[in-house]
Amino acid sequence: MAAWHCPLPKLTLPVAARTACDAVPSASSTWKLPQPCFVTASAVPNHKVSAVTAATQSVVQDSWEEIQSEVNYLASNARIVQWYPGHIAKAERELKTKIKLMDVIIEVRDARIPLATSHPEMITWIGDKMRVVVMNRVDMISTAEKNRWASYFASQNITTLFTDGRRGLGVMKLGRTVKSVARDINEKRRSKGLLPRAVRAVAVGYPNVGKSSLINRLLKRRKCEAAPRPGVTRELQWARIGEDLDLLDAPGILPMRLRDQAAAIRLAICHDIGESSYAVAGVAAVFVEMLKRMPHGGAELLQERYKIDANGMSGEVFLDELAQKLFAGDINHAALRLLQDYRKGCLGWMGLEWPPFKGQGP
């Protein structure tokens, strides 16, 4: 009896508006990625479907483990990212003091890199206070990735919401969630004979993950300065939402030292730290190595976009080829264009992390 087999499907990635991505002369054609292999339930027994699903999951996990191993190796050879501005050191000291007075902590993360945008000391600072994890920029990942992260956080019993601060997606749900927590807190105060008060919440997270944009959406007006670059919010800013919630917008907080260079490189790729803090060419070269190992055809994306076959090339050689082809040999220009193309969705909307495997922490 012949064995049933279905090849690992390629992920069809949505492409951003063409006007934002047509800057590369050879990349104006419409993408035609291979379609997934679909098999009807009647055609394949359930136990075989489960076996193939498990096998596919294992292949994908192996690919992500290889990516993490490669990024760790490349990052260990040089400190590509180094950044800790003085205003963040000051803001961290103030924030740690303020958190003690808060009722609710809203931890905003970048949905493309939820682990890299989680401060390693945040759990210690929060203690037993109510925490809501907000995965912002959900528009920049696929639905399948969103569902995987939702399942992961649910398994960790972490209250998680997905938002798009630019368009307002999920913001109303965030407002309802925080106000619901506020009501619960005041009900407990009344039961103890205490007067109700406005509940205090703080929005925390790494630079440029969209905290201020979310607050402005909640307020329905521009209260907090926001811009698509790190380091815009420099001071703690209070805002009143309704009659029962005071919300504090805090500057982006990084660890005292970026010891995890693999995470720091992901922050740089996603523009969650400033360009002055990292070597653009070094970060872009690592990004090419990551794409080549993506389980859903990352090398094909590079080939389709730049008409350069990345297979068999190192990240540095690919950048050199791209620089010679489009930027008169300027490697930094080529590196910056590659990173900008990813940030704009010209390579498709996709995350750079996979939920932790069994035995690994959040």
UniProtKB/TrEMBL annotation:
Domain of life: Eukaryota
Keywords from the named record: Chloroplast, GTP-binding, Nucleotide-binding, Plastid
Assigned GO CC terms: mitochondrion
Coiled coil: none
Pfam families membership: MMR_HSR1 (PF01926)
Record SUPFAM superfamilies: P-loop containing nucleoside triphosphate hydrolases
Domain G as annotated: residue spans: 202-255
Biological processes, Gene Ontology terms: mitochondrial translation
GO molecular function, one term: GTPase activity
Protein name: G domain-containing protein
